[in-house]
C-alpha cells in the first residue's frame, strides 16, 4: 500500500481491468503501465518503463504498451507463469501428492543500464523471491489453503469458484473470453475447465476449443 498509494484490491476499480482466458491460458491485467513495477520500490525502474513506453507502443500498439509493467500476471496452461513489471518467469513442477516445486527467474532487457538491472534484481529479491516479503505471504496463503482443503469437513463441501460470474464482456475487442475486473475467478474456472476437457477427451480431436466460448 505504501508503494502503490492504495490497496492492491482497488485494481478492479480501474477503468480498464480485466481477466482474459482461452483454452486454459489466463491473463489478468490493468493498463496502468507501472503498477507491478512500483512494488519493487525503485523509481529508476518506473522511469525506465516510462522512457521505453513509446518504443513499445510503436512496436506493439498503444494498448499493449500500457500493460508493460502494469498490475498483472498470466499463466500459460498448465504450469508456466509470468509477472510483468516484476519480470519474474515461473515454472511450477509437481513433486508428488501435496507437493510442488517453484522455479523462478527474473529477466531484464540486456541493454538496460547496469544500475537498472541491479535495482530490478534487488527489488525482486525483496518482494517476489523465496525470502521476499510478498512471496512469503503468498506462500503461507497457498500452504494453508491447501491444508484447509484437506480437512475432514472441507472434503465433503463443494469449492465455490463463482466470483465474477456476471462480469463477462461480450462486446470487447480483446481476443478470448473477456471478463471485467481482476478480482475475479474467471481464469481459475477456465483453467480447471481445460483440465477437465483434457481428462475426459479420448483423443486430441475431442478436446473442445474454448476460445471465446466457455461452457
Automatic annotation (TrEMBL):
Gene3D superfamilies found in the cross-reference section: Naphthalene 1,2-dioxygenase Alpha Subunit, Chain A, domain 1
Domain Aromatic-ring-hydroxylating dioxygenase alpha subunit C-terminal: 71-200
Domain of life the protein comes from: Bacteria
GO function terms (MF aspect): 2 iron, 2 sulfur cluster binding; iron ion binding
Pfam family, one: Ring_hydroxyl_A
Protein's name according to its UniProt entry: Ring hydroxylating alpha subunit (Catalytic domain)
Organism name: Azotobacter beijerinckii
Amino acid at each position: 500500500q505504501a508503494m502503490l498509494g492504495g490497496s492492491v484490491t482497488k485494481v478492479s476499480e480501474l477503468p480498464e481491468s480485466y481477466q482474459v482466458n482461452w483454452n486454459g491460458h489466463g491473463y489478468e491485467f490493468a493498463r496502468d503501465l507501472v503498477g507491478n513495477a512500483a512494488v519493487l520500490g525503485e523509481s529508476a525502474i518506473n522511469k525506465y518503463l516510462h522512457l521505453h513506453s513509446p518504443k513499445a507502443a510503436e512496436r506493439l500498439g498503444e494498448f499493449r504498451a500500457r500493460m508493460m509493467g502494469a498490475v498483472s500476471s498470466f499463466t500459460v496452461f498448465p504450469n508456466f507463469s509470468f509477472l510483468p513489471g516484476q519480470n519474474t518467469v515461473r515454472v511450477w513442477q509437481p513433486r508428488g501428492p501435496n507437493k510442488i516445486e517453484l522455479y523462478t527467474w527474473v529477466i531484464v532487457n540486456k541493454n538496460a543500464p547496469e544500475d537498472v538491472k541491479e535495482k530490478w534484481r534487488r527489488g525482486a529479491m525483496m518482494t517476489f523471491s523465496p525470502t521476499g516479503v510478498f512471496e512469503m505471504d503468498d506462500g503461507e496463503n497457498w500452504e494453508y489453503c491447501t491444508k484447509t482443503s484437506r480437512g475432514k469437513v472441507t472434503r465433503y463441501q463443494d469449492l465455490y469458484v463463482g466470483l465474477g460470474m456476471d462480469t463477462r464482456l461480450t462486446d470487447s475487442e480483446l481476443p478470448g473470453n473477456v471478463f471485467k475486473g481482476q478480482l475475479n475467478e474467471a481464469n481459475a474456472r477456465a483453467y480447471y475447465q481445460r483440465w477437465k476437457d483434457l481428462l475426459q477427451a479420448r483423443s486430441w480431436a475431442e478436446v473442445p476449443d474454448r476460445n471465446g466460448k466457455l461452457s
